[in-house]
Amino acid sequence: MVSMNAGPLARLGGVESGGQSVVVDCLSRALADGGNEVTIFTQRDDPTLPDRLITAAGVHIVYVSAPAPLANATEAFRAQLAAEWMADPPDIVHAHAWMSGTAAIAAARPFGIPVVQTFHGMARAKRGRHDSSDAVRLGEEAALVRAAARIVATSSAEVFALLGMGASPGAIKLIPCGVDLELFRPLPRTAPRAGQPFRVATLSRLVPDAGAGDVIEALAHSAGTELIVGGGSCSASDLAGDPDALELAARAQARGVRGRVMFQGHIKRDDVASFLRSADLVICAPWYDSIGTVALEAMACGVPVIVSSVGSHVDAVADGISGAHVPPQAARQIAYAIESLKADAPRRERFARFGVERTSARYGWSRIAAETFEVYATVAGRSARLTRSRA
């Protein structure tokens, strides 16, 4: 596994580390459970970590470079990957995101190692947040589409985007991201909700395109509803120094809903399930999405969801069956969906029940890993199959 900017042990909530870190971690653990030797190559984000370590799940992690300016970081990363693979070449490389793919393809080519690519979002699908790397990224993503041995797309929307870039249909395999069904499962609420305000929750980065601001806007049209906002890289006590959190708080103040909005800050991975279960309804409203992690986690916990109809959400959440779809950047439609579900407890229960059934039937990591391994085996010319050690 090559995940340059999102290691499996990274603190979640930053610009780079988030759903991709969770996917790389969970997929690697599931593959290791199936009897494979898995090594994750990533950048060091904590100077106290050793150069190499083995997790409790038996996954090897190698920190191959320190962060640096864009071009220098990618070249340094590539050079160190090449050195590692000259000494001990893997059978297959799975690159996660475009910078990882750029480094991995260049490092693997001299050794004839096939590279499978997952993009975790593409530049052409971005809405609202653009930066100086976009021009470079567009070109690199087009090159990766041509160079990768196979592309694992995480949503139908991504499949169509790849086809629009000239990818061969036979080179694409649609495999969604999964959810940890042991950590995220339906349990009794963490606290009684009877007699308390209707509570909605959102968990994401706090940047504009993550959609928390749209949920705050919706609150102005949903009287008697309170909102808990989780996410960001700071703890709740340090949010006063987080400009994104301050901007959201100012927005809530301007809309007259500040007293009904609670900022929880960074939520530790082990606490995410409890955070989601504390709400009557979870809202995931990003302007674009390639992974859909939080929506899947809420569904697996038996909490009804409202999601923006973008990316992986379209596939994961069956509109009107296991959740409700709203357009991106549509605060009034979010408010309408909240009010509709607030007044209809049986519908919320149906969403919750079908959400649990949907995630358990399709999105467990053992199944996702088995499908991914079949891609590896095909690319490597092998007929082996991953042992399904868990349901």
Key terms:
391 residues; alpha/beta; Rossmann fold; 2 domains; 6-stranded parallel beta sheet; 4-stranded parallel beta sheet; 13 helices; 15% strand
Structure description:
This protein has 391 residues and is an alpha/beta fold. The protein has 2 domains: 19-178 and 364-380, 3-Layer(aba) Sandwich (Rossmann fold), CATH 3.40.50.2000; 198-362, Rossmann fold (3-Layer(aba) Sandwich). Helices cover 39% and strands 15% of the residues. The chain contains 13 helices and 13 strands. It has helices at 19-33, 70-87, 98-108, 134-147, 156-164, 212-219, 243-254, 272-277, 293-300, 312-316, 331-342, 345-362, 365-380; strands at 39-43, 52-54, 60-65, 93-96, 115-118, 150-153, 172-174, 198-203, 225-230, 261-265, 281-284, 305-308, 324-326. The strands form 3 sheets. Strands 10-9-8-11-12-13 form a 6-stranded parallel β-sheet, with helices on both faces. Strands 4-5-6-7 form a 4-stranded parallel β-sheet, with helices on both faces. It has a 3-stranded mixed β-sheet with strand order 1-3-2. α3 (98-108) packs across α4, α6 (212-219) crosses α11 (331-342) and α9 (293-300) packs across α12. The longest helix is centred in the first third of the chain and has 18 residues, at 70-87. The model is unreliable at 383-391 (pLDDT under 50).
